[in-house]
Amino acid sequence: MTNLRDQGVQVMREMLPGLLPDDVPNDKVDFGSAGFAGELMDIGLEGIFGRLWTRDGLARRDRSLVTLGILIALKAESELESHFRIAKQNGLTEDELAEVIYHASGYAGFPAANTAKAAAIKGLGK
């Protein structure tokens, strides 16, 4: 049986290099599980990064495009910051990321696209 949490931590290490210390084994990484709603990050690690990002069928680059579109429509600024960095790590160029924002303005609306632009500026360090 596959340990989805360990897979999720590994995917996170690959898509957000430098976020987690290299000398801490995957099963020992702590995301604040002792605090309020402490299991939330483990749920995300297992269900999203461990199960969804490791599936066959779409390349990580394609998953990044889908994820950005959804997060832009939701105006999920905090998650967008990370996912712009992830998308760049997954092979999207900054020009392509700008095109995602432009394209989203027509479908999710200008306010959502503007929120995404602000998140991209923070996430990409621009």
From TrEMBL:
Q: What is this protein called?
A: Carboxymuconolactone decarboxylase family protein
| Pfam families xrefs | CMD
**Organism annotation:** Mycolicibacterium komossense
Q: Which domain of life is it from?
A: Bacteria
Q: Which residues form the Carboxymuconolactone decarboxylase-like domain?
A: 49-120
Coiled-coil residues are none
Give the matching InterPro entries: 4CMD/NDH-1_regulator (IPR052512), AhpD-like (IPR029032), CMD-like (IPR003779)
